[in-house]
């Protein structure tokens, strides 16, 4: 992280993120509702033990968890990710990311505008921005977004407000035209990831495919090997 936070040059930040974390990576997201009774700490530990280098904490849709509990969980995950030299990103909550010294925050198109979030977190934190079409992706290049999420590539039922699937054409556009780290999201599974790899996917975000696995560590190890063509 030091070589990222020490500069405001967005091109340098993006290139460093791509080379160190995003290229051929699996981007993991927490989802306790789908984790078969396991808590987020257990799940994240298994991910990290498998070699995962990017973890996002996403619990904003959980009405049964107060912010104090989220804060305490994130403190523990922050320590785990430091031990394994992995990025720790928090979905949506810039204040929580600052409070636990996470590496960054991920926001959507309907959240506070990215440049307003940048004023909150400064350049010591990474900001990821979700995009759902070519226009949003192209606009993101002219912001201070360090990386972008693209999708949902396939249909997904893990987010109640998810957009319609964008398909492979959107991935092709980003991979062939934009110079920015990106992660594909939405409905990605073991049985369809080869198609995305063929179309130059840089990083793949999987949720239920990982957290609902009987053996999370083994599943992550398998996904990493496939992503890295090992």
Molecular structure report:
By secondary structure, this protein is an alpha/beta fold. Helices cover 43% and strands 15% of the residues. The chain has helices spanning 2-5, 10-22, 40-50, 67-83, 94-99, 114-121, 134-140, 168-177, 193-198, 208-211, 216-227; strands at 25-29, 54-57, 87-91, 104-107, 126-131, 147-150, 182-184, 203-206. The protein has an eight-stranded parallel beta barrel with strand order 1-2-3-4-5-6-7-8, surrounded by seven helices.
Structural class: alpha/beta
Largest sheet: 8 strands, parallel, barrel
Give me the side-by-side strand order of the main sheet: 1-2-3-4-5-6-7-8
| Spatial shape | globular
SSE map:
Blueprint: H1 2-5, H2 10-22, E1 25-29, H3 40-50, E2 54-57, H4 67-83, E3 87-91, H5 94-99, E4 104-107, H6 114-121, E5 126-131, H7 134-140, E6 147-150, H8 168-177, E7 182-184, H9 193-198, E8 203-206, H10 208-211, H11 216-227
